[in-house]
Amino acid sequence: MADGKKLSSLDASFLYLETPEMPMHVGSMAIFRLPDDYKGDFFEDFKAMIVSRLHIAPILKARLEKAPLDIDHPSWVEDDQFDIDRHIFRASLPQPRDRATLERIVGWMHAKLLNRARPLWEFYVFEGMKNNEVGLYSKMHHAAIDGGAGAALTNMIYDISPIPRKVDPPAVGSKPGQEPRDIAANLLDSYQQLFNQPLDAGKAAQNLQLPRTGKSDIGSILFDNAMYQIESAVRFAGNIPTMVKSVSEVLGKVADPKSRESLASMVSPPTMLNKTISSERSFAGVSIPLSRAKALAKQAGGKLNDVVLALASGVVRRYLKEYSTLPAKSLTAAVPISLREEGNTEANNQVFGMICAIATNIDDPKARLEAIIAQSTKSKEMSHPLRALMPQVSNISMLGAPIMVQILALLYSRSNLSDVLPPAANITVSNVPGPRQTLYAAGAELLHIFPVSISTHGQALNITVQSYRDQLDFGFIVGANIIPHVQVMCDMLPEEFAALEAAYAPPATDIKGAAE
Length: 516
Description:
Blueprint: E1 5-6, H1 9-16, E2 25-33, H2 42-51, E3 62-65, E4 75-78, E5 88-91, H3 99-110, E6 121-126, E7 133-141, H4 147-157, H5 180-195, H6 201-207, H7 218-238, H8 240-255, H9 257-265, E8 281-289, H10 290-300, H11 304-322, E9 332-338, E10 351-357, H12 365-387, H13 390-393, H14 401-415, E11 427-432, E12 440-441, E13 444-452, E14 461-468, E15 471-479, H15 487-490, H16 492-504, H17 508-515
Parallel strand pairs: 5-6, 9-11, 11-14
Antiparallel strand pairs: 1-4, 2-7, 2-13, 3-4, 6-7, 8-15, 9-10, 12-13, 14-15
């Protein structure tokens, strides 16, 4: 068996929770513009560019290798039968070959599961669009990547000039696998390291690295799991003071009457968006100016993410009101929060989240944004103590857990429990920072990167936004049995943005006085 890197519990959970109705891949719909004098074959040029840079992102050539009987998490191993033609495809776009048609096809394609026998990613190139544009739909399994790593991958693959940069070829040679005697020697060295640092348990816990075989036979899995359990126990002991502090802070906040009010506001009312979803998706994208959104956040005394939440709130509020299904209680949003440190480009998941009330019960756009700013501040305060706990609980491993989680996920999906259980949150809203400079691929200018994320049972609507240059590109993805044409909702966003800007615009008399 090939040596590999075992998935963390958080990464592996996206595999276990996946069902035919609930694919767990994320992606994007990118729009490029070819130069007017372009004479080449963009598909072939783009594919050749990706091939020359595969070594920059090793996850692109890694496939899953399951543990026997699913008793432990699978591992990433290099695919020795990797074929680029099974990952990058030339796709056709029917008339009128516009963005609306592309969005409908992307929604249909995003509902299809990735083939787990190969590396978990696919690119589809749509040529021949209007205005010399080219569409690129990409998807990659969430087990391999989160939003932060996805943005980093974008910077690794694309260029900052129309002329592709030269990339050094991969280094020749590979690290040989460890022999049993080397593993035993490293094991003794690790224990010696542990006992030589008895007065600094926290540092010893973080630095302890017991050897692994990295193999997938049953004996190696049991050995590696034993090493992991020892490491986890030592790290747990070393982090007890931090965890006790975090738990005491959480208990203190729960005991505070004001905090209990905040917790009550995070209880989500049932809506039409919180039902069991089908295996079909509807997708649409829209853009607004980033600089104007930031100016609006500054005027309101909040953050850019508050404006994003306010726009999502306004859109959902208007849509539900049109169908006479808007609850009297405010809806809530699940908001992912990245734990990724600056400069960290590892292809894995480093994220947790918070629940925030989004003031859909408030009609006035200005008052709604102010309420969201206050609510998001409280939610961040409530979730802050949990940040220190996440690294301790996000990689819990137990032999036999993979098969049990998969069975439970399938039962939940087939039983339609999300139709009767109260929702944890009503919608998902995610804001992913992207590159500010113009990017290019194979000489074509990148115009937009619309995120295409995940819809789940009980949270059918996902609104993810990525910044690029001076724009915010919003991607709406939803279970098509809940909202067949999400473009209707997406078209409301520019109107909500205009209403929010108008609410913060100075009165006409002030403008007239300033002009005089």
